[in-house]
Amino acid sequence: MSPLTGKPIPPFSLQDDQGTTVTAKDFQGRWTVLYAYPKDSTPGCTTESCDFRDNLARVQGLGAQVYGISRDSLKSHLNFIAKQGLTFPLLSDPDCALLAPLGAFGKKIMYGKEVQGIIRSTFLVDPKGIIRHVWPKVSVKGHVQAVLDTLAALQKA
Predict the structure, then answer these.
(1) Neighbour-count burial for 50-80, b at 16+ CB within 10 Å, e otherwise
(2) Which of 45, 64, 98, 131 is catalytic?
(3) One-character DSSP codes across 8-27
């Protein structure tokens, strides 16, 4: 279990792809799926984002909202959304103001080298703003279904 489980989402203020400011208060009142991904328009990130897009009605059917988050600019997010037909907001966190406290930014191995970057992770936040489940180092295949299963199970608990 992640040390973040059971703790409030850290305070933050970031812009989404429309330039709207999103804060931790926006995560209150309903379940939130926040997935951190390394870079717009790269193969794994595109697959993951499209899986969330294709299953958005199922996520929303469980009363949850979806946000993607990366260090990409608002312009990059707009291009990614347009190209992939994404139907949920993407947050821009160029300074890792939220990514770092969530543990979604740090050392990772890429092509055999240690680099600093976004660690693909997903956070399930309850309607009170409490992190209920964390997927660190996400493997894209089957991930959205795992999120849906966990969300349903937590709501029944």
Answers:
(1) ebbbebbeebeeeebbbbbbbbbebebbbeb
(2) 45
(3) BPPP-EEEETTS-EEEGGGG
At 36-93, the pLDDT tens digits run: 999 999 999 999 999 999 999 999 999 999 999 999 999 999 999 999 999 999 999 9
The closest alpha carbon to 92, from 4, 10, 32, 13, belongs to 13
CATH label, 13-156, candidates 3.20.20.80, 3.30.300.30, 3.30.70.1350, 3.40.30.10: 3.40.30.10
Radius of gyration of the chain (CA): 14
Q: Look up 45 and say whether it is catalytic.
A: yes
Count of CB atoms within 10 A of residue 121's CB? 22
Query: In whole angstroms, what is the distance from residue 114 CA to residue 38 CA?
Result: 15
**Alpha helix positions (H), 33-73:** 43-54, 56-61
| For the chain, domain boundaries | 13-156
